[in-house]
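Replying to the earlier thread about multi-chain prediction with a worked example.

Input:
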Amino acid sequence: MEDREREIMLDLVRVTETAALMAGRYMGMGNKELVDAAAVDGMRGMLELVRITGTVVIGEGEKDKAPMLYVGEKLGNGKGETEVDIAVDPVEGTRLVANGLPNALSIIVVAARGAILPVPSFYMHKIAVGPKAKGHIDINAPVRENLRVVAAALGRKGRDLTVVILDRPRHRQLIEEVRQTGARIKLISDGDVAGAIATCLEETGVDMLMGIGGAPEAVLSAAAIKCLGGEIQTKLWLPDDEQRKRATEAGFTEENRVFTAEDLVRGDGIIFAATGITDGELLQGVRYYGNLATTNSIVMRMRTGTVRQIKTYHDLTRKTLRSMKMGREVEV
Ligand code: VTB
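Result:
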């Protein structure tokens, strides 16, 4: 993986750009499925060109339910020899795109073979912070205590903190506890990966992410947060017997185990790439101007800590996109 990392970084940006360009066309049309199908199609088509031998560890679901990017699917042109794990979320926040709301991203993570924890679609408790508060949080500590130590680490008052929380009934108590400390809250309707990443980038104004969201999303967040030097801690959330049974069957027997970023994505061989689909704090979304479209992406490499933001101008008079579904290049 190491020697190939530099080479494939830009290829991975092209993968998320293509997914974003395809999905962005459906913004605001109220149809989540269309958004996802378009992104999957573009992502899958572009992955064919990348010189890796990859296995999807986190993807669109089980083989019988997902036609493409299913868990276990082999990807890449195979000529790369390099065996890698792949985690994808062609659209993190399909509902955000369907409704034209901010912060939808197309995401891919490539890591050394065996590095990505294969978590099924469970939910996880999450707490994430940026580099300055790293080493201070404890997912098992009371909410108030976590906010206190983060404020201290940042040299701020509690009321100067901003915490991102998914707007869900299951977070009623969490929200109440955060409010009692005087901290500010940003409720989001979807997209806690963007929220987790935002904690690591000071200009976003986000200091912490707390609450329960998807486990696959926790893995993607961990990959980005590792590259950015922040911290995330997670724990399975198994609210009923059925979930507990599913977790046990999948080999997750310790309900209270804390999974750190290192547990979710091991080692230094990690590349994270994302392209904005709708506008957000992190990245501007796709814009279409007749013959031109623009995308904004971020690509990061754990081994070197390099973070690149890439704005791309796509000339639509010359550019076509690969569609797996159509078996040919299509117009954007
Ligand atoms: C979570 C979150 C995601 O969807 O999976 C959420 O991690 C689903 O939560 O970022 P509910 O089942 O409570 O709706 C996202 O927000 C978007 O995929």
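The longest strand covers residues 83-92.

Feel free to reuse this layout for your own posts.
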